[in-house]
Design goal:
The complex is a heterodimer of chains A (about 270) and B (about 550). Helix content of chain A is about 30%, strand content about 25%. With about 270 residues, chain A is of the alpha/beta class. Chain A has one domain: P-loop containing nucleotide triphosphate hydrolases (Rossmann fold, 3-Layer(aba) Sandwich), CATH 3.40.50.300. Chain B is built from 22 helices and eleven strands. Helix content of chain B is about 55%, strand content about 10%. The chains are: A alpha/beta (about 270), B alpha/beta (about 550).
Chain lengths: ~270, ~550
């Protein structure tokens, strides 16, 4: 399934915000490898640092220590043209489909900008754009539509097409289904599951929902307060969680086997 | 409706139209007439409607002829302020952070410096004259406009499509032209209109004090300057022409600005029709055994039915769940029950009662607050961040129960203990931001409990919370229900949540209740309606059956 060298290598990553006494440590000692063609899910609750990890991977946040290499290039050390090239190798699909598309520009404009950031001419790349719209199961005439004419799920499909049209080596999906209704979420997850196989995507899928990532990930990383508390193949993490926090998280999902909210006689917390 | 709203815009545009026509035609038609010399200081007459000035010129004709120069100067100065202001304000957001902070502070400092004083300095340096007045007023307007543009750009540049473009490798200049400017064009247009009015008065003021247009040219300010001795000599009519024209033009610009702002803001165009229900008493026959009895409830907005005749009941001590996706009408149903429908929504029902209380008729707010307790979705935004928790939590008790401060405090501290919030006394003194999301939600449930309501309506009570915290809050609601027998109505998009928490569940889809089912039967196998099945199938679950291990 995978080549020898991992596409993403995160080594002893430390990220802090603020200076001096007000320094807050957001990520601590993160080491993760993502092999080519695999999907690693990063799961954690609010404050776990999962979004900061995503931003660090795309180079939007500078680590205070450690390194992030993607395709052999150090993300944080890259400058100038090398950095621009580097940035196009890693694409982030953002969380909120309502703010990730410019309301004043058509879907065609948005995709053309991804293909050619300089000129962004739709006519020049119409064929490529339409074929990618079809890949995410959107009709060709979406090209001339504006974001407000599309539903949340359709916008998220467009955002996915925009992320993939660049043919990135790595895709970072940051909570891409959390703003959607469950039936739409299921559609998007099916789409991602299909594209992952068809295109051989290397992906980091970030989510707060353990149930969501099960179907689409090869490995699962559980983050808690900025540290990796569990990392392993998906089946192992779900069926035989090693860390206490992972068990708590699994049992907190309504409908999970360990989920229980029946009143118990317990002391005041 | 919107046409009436935009009366100001129409009026402003027609006023400006008249002024522009004057500016175009007056110098062609009246130039010779305005230069003719006649009797000095003549009072208004059939020949000279507004009299003549110290040199014997017709004041009315001169005022009309001056329109062109005044407008041109105002437009030029506004253009300088707007163009350079927008350039500065936008480019600030494309700079590296340190440089940006420096520039923003510099702009702040310049805004604090009086604009007219800056204009006087510039005019004094460049020498008196029309073009230096234009440059002076234009330059003086830059910081103000730059700051407003900077604020707008700050908001737009934080949106995800801008950061995405940046990650795609789009250059900063292109980001500015492609994404920033189009998304702030409306407010900028509105601001430009009001800047125009300000510039008009500023330029006129410069000419009035003699630093603007010099003889033999004249604009409105210069005419005012010439009229000043007449005013002091009891001949005020010489002032009327330029003064009226300045006021009319300024008014036109302000009206256009306000009209554009109203047109750009869709909320301003909406009329607020009262959310009154048309029928005032419940008609339908009561059904036995229900605390809450709702029959044929429909809610419409603007002729569109959002909830289409839903009937349900809640028994004493029961937890009823309403589940559905966005747009299904689940929240509207709950809000209608609490008489909290937003303005413009009209509800209709044959019966809506809570015990012996008729919810279709008017219910005193105090009685309502004691009968129904509300728990909202986002514990972050329901509390006022400026007030201590104690003040906010005791408010209902103090206003509606008329309890004293001490009694209300004791009651709330008890309730906080009931929902097992740690250190209740200390929490009362804290501000909302000092509590975690789960703690705030516990506090809100405590406040809802404190009035001993007969029904608690919880609208997505755990949606904004982490799963581990969600499980705690669900456990709390379940415990309160079984210990105190309080009826609870839970609204949620999460079928897993309602199945775990509720006794009975109503599935809503596009304004209709498509299925009513015991929570225990909420599985793909026992659900009847295809939408319920689809919803269940779409919900990702953690079950051991799917596992490979």
């Amino acid at each position: 399934m995978a080549d020898d060298a991992p596409v993403i290598e995160v080594r002893d990553l430390e990220v802090s915000y603020g200076w001096g006494r007000s320094t807050t440590r957001v990520l601590h000692g993160i080491t993760i490898d993502v092999a080519k063609g695999t999907t690693v899910a990063v799961v954690g609750e609010s404050g776990s640092g999962k979004s900061t990890l995503a931003k660090t991977l795309v180079g939007a946040v500078r680590p205070s220590a450690g390194s992030v290499t993607i395709g052999g290039i150090d993300v944080t050390a890259a400058r100038g043209a090398r950095r621009t090239a580097m940035r196009r190798k890693v694409q982030m699909i953002p969380q909120d489909p309502y703010s990730s598309l410019d309301p004043r520009r058509t879907i065609g404009d948005a995709l053309a900008e991804a293909v050619d950031p300089r000129r962004a001419k739709v006519t020049r790349h119409a064929d490529e754009i339409v074929s990618w719209l079809e890949t995410v199961r959107m009709p060709a005439d979406t090209l001339h539509r504006y974001p407000h004419e599309l539903s949340g799920g359709q916008r998220q499909r467009v955002a996915i097409a925009r992320g993939l049209i660049v043919r990135p080596e790595v895709v970072i999906a940051d909570e891409i289904t959390s703003a959607l209704d469950v039936s739409v979420q299921a559609e998007i997850l099916r789409l991602i599951a299909r594209l992952r196989v068809e295109l051989g995507l290397t992906m980091v899928f970030i989510s707060h929902n353990l149930a969501v990532v099960r179907q689409i990930s090869d490995e699962v990383v559980v983050l808690y307060r900025g540290e990796v508390v569990e990392h392993g193949p998906a089946d192992q993490v779900y069926d035989d969680p090693q860390h206490e926090y992972t068990r708590t998280l699994l049992n907190a999902v309504p409908g999970a086997p360990g989920f229980d909210i029946e009143p118990r006689r317990r002391e005041v917390a | 409706m919107s046409r009436r709203r935009n009366l100001g815009l129409v009026l402003g545009l027609s006023l400006l139209g008249v002024v522009v026509v004057i500016a175009v035609l007056a110098p062609i038609l009246f130039k010779t007439g305005a230069d003719e010399l006649g009797q000095r200081f003549a009072p208004p007459s059939a020949d000279h409607w507004l009299g003549t000035d110290a040199a014997g010129h017709d004041v009315l004709l001169r005022s009309l002829v001056a329109t062109r120069l005044t407008l041109l100067m105002t437009v030029a100065a506004t253009a300088i302020a707007v163009a350079l202001g927008v350039l500065l304000g936008t480019s600030v957001w494309l700079m590296p952070r340190r440089l940006r902070e420096l520039c923003l502070r510099a702009i702040d400092a310049m805004v604090a410096f009086p604009g007219l004083l800056l204009a006087l300095v510039v005019a004094a340096v460049l020498g008196a004259g029309g073009s230096s007045a234009v440059i002076a007023i234009g330059v003086a307007g830059i910081p103000y406009f730059a700051r407003l543009t900077g604020n707008l750009a700050a908001k737009v540049s934080q949106r995800e499509f801008v950061s995405t473009a940046r990650l795609l490798g789009v250059s900063p200049v292109r980001i500015a032209f492609r994404h920033l400017l189009p998304n702030m064009s409306e407010p900028l247009l509105v601001l430009s209109a009001s800047t125009f009015a300000g510039t008009l008065t500023a330029i006129s003021a410069l000419s009035f004090v003699g630093l603007g247009v010099q003889s033999p040219s004249y604009d409105w300010g210069k005419l005012l300057n010439e009229a000043l001795p007449s005013l002091l000599a009891d001949r005020p009519f010489q002032l009327v022409g330029p003064a009226v024209l300045i006021v009319v033009t300024g008014l036109a610009a302000v009206l256009i600005g306000d009209g554009l702002a109203a047109a750009a803001n869709p909320r301003a165009a909406r009329t607020a029709a009262g959310g009154a229900s048309t029928r005032r008493t419940s008609q339908g026959t009561p059904r036995d055994g229900y605390l809450v009895d709702v029959q044929e409830l429909s809610i419409e907005y603007d002729g569109k039915q959002l909830v289409k005749g839903i009937s349900f009941g809640i028994r004493q001590g029961e937890i009823l769940g309403i589940v559905g996706e966005s747009g299904s009408g689940k929240t509207l149903t709950a809000m209608a029950l609490a008489q909290l429908l937003p303005d413009g929504l009209i509800s209709n029902a044959t019966r809506m009662t809570l015990g012996d209380l008729d919810l279709l008729g008017p219910v005193p707010p105090g009685l309502m607050a004691q009968t129904v307790g509300l728990v909202y979705q986002d514990p972050g935004s329901t509390f006022n961040p400026a007030l201590r928790m104690g003040t906010q939590l005791t408010e209902v008790l103090r206003t509606h129960r008329r309890l004293g401060a001490q009694a209300a405090r004791r009651r709330i501290i008890d309730a906080l203990g009931t929902v097992r919030l740690s250190k209740p006394e200390q929490r009362m003194k804290q501000h909302p931001h000092e509590l975690s999301g789960g703690m705030r939600q516990r506090a809100m449930i405590a406040a809802a409990l404190a009035t001993e309501p007969r029904l608690i309506i919880a609208d997505e009570p755990t949606t904004a919370l982490d799963v581990t915290v969600q499980a705690e809050i669900l456990r709390e609601l379940k415990r309160l229900n079984s210990e105190f027998g309080t009826s609870i109505m839970v609204i949620s998009h999460d079928i897993g949540v309602v199945r775990a928490l509720c006794h009975r569940v109503i599935v809503m889809y596009q304004g209709k209740a498509v299925e009513e089912i015991e929570a225990a039967h909420l599985t793909v196998a026992s659900a009847q309606h295809s939408y319920t099945k689809a919803l269940l199938e779409a919900t990702p679950e953690l079950t051991l059956e799917n596992s490979h291990g």
